[in-house]
Protein 1
Amino acid sequence: MAKVNVKICMGTTCFVMGSSQLHDLVDIVNKKYGEDVAITGSTCLNYCTDTSEYSKAPYVKVNDIVIQEATIDKVLQEIDKCLKQQG
Ligand code: FES
């Protein structure tokens, strides 16, 4: 069973701001972590409306942690942290 849940926001704002470039992440995560991590795309996570600027998109959620201006590296780092915490 997956220990860490990752959601890549594919809502319009995040998509335009680069979440489409995070698509490789799905393959990387599946190869690297297998069943320890479940990665899915998501409709708007509603974080883009929290701020008047859209500059913090794209958003990715790793368990309950929200990553702003997400990059593949940032997400992988957060997954590693979560897996360590969960043992
Ligand atoms: S489009 Fe990603 S949080 Fe709204």
Protein 2
Amino acid sequence: MFARIKKIFQDFANNLQSAILYRTLDEKDIENYSNEMFMRLVEADVAYEVAEKIIENIRQRLIGLKIRRGDDVEKHVEEVVEKSIASVLSAVGSFNLANFVKSILARESPAKLMFMGVNGVGKTTTIAKIAYKLRAEGFKPVVIAADTFRAGAQEQLKKHAERISIAFFGGRYGSDPAATALDGVVYAQRNNFDVALIDTAGRMHIDADLMNELRKVTRVVKPHIKLLVLDALTGNDALEQLKKFEEAVGVDVVILTKIDADANGGAALSVIMGVGKPIAYLGIGQRYEDLVEYDPGIILKMLFK
Ligand SMILES: Nc1nc2c(ncn2[C@@H]2O[C@H](COP(=O)(O)OP(=O)(O)OP(=O)(O)O)[C@@H](O)[C@H]2O)c(=O)[nH]1
Ligand SMILES: [Mg+2]
């Protein structure tokens, strides 16, 4: 993960290190090497503004840094790069879903989680992963298939649920997704499930009818939290999707899937740095275990270790 980005940061540090070995660094060197890094980041699908933010941060730190020959130069330069990325990442909020669910359960049950997103981003798979994780953390989850629209959607969630022995609630195809979601929540209440994870139909973010339908689910079910699933591979488009869902129904938290599938890592890094909403989880593969809670440390580890 992030292989190409990792290499770009490494090369940048190496270049500076060899320059420093022979003389003190001047602003011209910093300028040259950071311009080169900027181009390479953009080529690796890092969004222009994100690459700019990174470079600017690194440049400021380098200019303020007095490195003399004989100091542990290598360590200094690497530290600067890592600290810069850490500082850009620290602006990205994380979100602990288990703690959130606990806070809801302190006053009512079940906690209602609504998942939404464009077709194929990984909603259904992610719901299964999260249910799996929450159960391991001591909760009693049920997954609700409020996708009554796409052929096969019901069976898909059901199959996941069976594989990991999680309770499933479904509806009839063509029936009202809001009614199915509400029935599912009532079912959860009556059967003492404490977390209801609601799967909704994939929709294009420009599809007004489907957005209205999602609004209706929200109105009827009153979810405690609305989670938007975004495919990290889609880069800028993911940020466009977020904007549209935010306008139509509101987004509390995002989940980024397919981090593992981004060979360059630039698109994923851009979405992480540009999303501007708390990130709950990162999807890092197709197995149920392939879901990690987001925190800046995880990204730093992927980039620098
Ligand atoms: N590599 C990888 N693949 C993933 C990840 N998350 C989901 N997928 C894959 O993405 C594909 C689509 O996943 P789904 O869960 O069906 O997506 P969806 O959003 O529910 O799709 P629709 O219901 O059609 O809108 C599947 O092949 C998943 O295995 C991930 O983190 N990494
Ligand atoms: Mg689905």
